[in-house]
What does this fold into?
Amino acid sequence: NVSLKVSTDSKHYFKNQVKVGLFGSGVGLSVVLGFSAAYACYYLLSVAKKPILIAGGKKFHQFLRDKCPVVSETYYPTFWCWESRVQTLLRPFVTTKPWVNYRNELISAPDGGQISLDWFDNDDSASHPDQATCPTVLLLPGLTGTSRESYILHMVQQSRDLGYRCVVFNNRGVSGEKLLTPRTYCAANTEDLEVVIEHVQRTIDKAPLMAAGVSMGGMMLANYLGRKGSEVHLKGVVVFSAGWDVFEGTASLEKPLDRFLFNSYLTSCLQASVDRHRIILEKKYDIDHVMKAKTIREFDERFTSIMFGYPSNDDYYRDASPIHKIKSVQVPMLCLNAADDVFSPNHAFPVEAVKQNPNVALLITCHGGHIGFLEGLWPRQSTYMDRVFRQFTSAVFENASSLDGLH
It folds into this structure.
């Protein structure tokens, strides 16, 4: 009986303990509620903020505030992944990949190479049914990106909803086409981009054309605008997560954590692309030496700077940095960067150069990482970056006259 009583008492004891537990006692619940309240306060006070808009001219500044309200709205990053590296790493995995049916076109380059363009014709456009005059957006992906990247597909989707046509410029050798000459691409060389723009403008000579570039695509686009000045006939340009100073961006990516998370992976992607075209590239370059590179800087020293004839890698990096060419841009250009982007450190943003050019505006969010800009509880669909793209693209095409005379 004593044994039975002890056993029964034990059962009651443990049963009550399980019932009370951490939450039943009120202590655990208080801790959770307290932590949640503190986190919410921190998020609202320190994380969710309005972006900073810097523009070189009052007219462009006012145009953006009137026609692109997103530039004045508070950006609320996804509350559970607002840290820059997490935003950068998660975007390719959590955002959807809208289905897009492209029409591929291969065009010839002056050196005998070929360039792959992916067209989304948007034949069913209700707002612009005439294909001859349908507004068109030229899209430039990032370092190793193609027309199948999620951020490109989302911009095509936004353009489709607006009734516009898109064409994606794939850099040489990255989208499955054969490399015909021992040459690929880099941020500094804009010869292929010039060929593409001239071809597109000849093909749709009655349609207005603007361009959007992401990361290295944005750098290439900004370098092109700076070099060509008044010769550019694009209606407008929007650039996302561009690396403005390659020296600073490379140094940032060589810090231990960022080297582990990003640098090594991107280097291996570049090497894989080179290895795919080894047969033609090894005629001019030491591919085995290139394949031993451990960082992007080493890859550029052994391959990119040599390919494009620079005396040194520093000369290449200097030429590839758009920060030096902002002053010469003569087309309305909006640039979106996150202040916490490890690929493009905020101390290297071209703030002073932008202030001196009435054609350029720089939009800076506190968070967003590199091509991240996730927002919403579960960021499967459009991001803050997509909203900026949609509003600016629509504003340029539908209110072109408002941008006349920015100089």
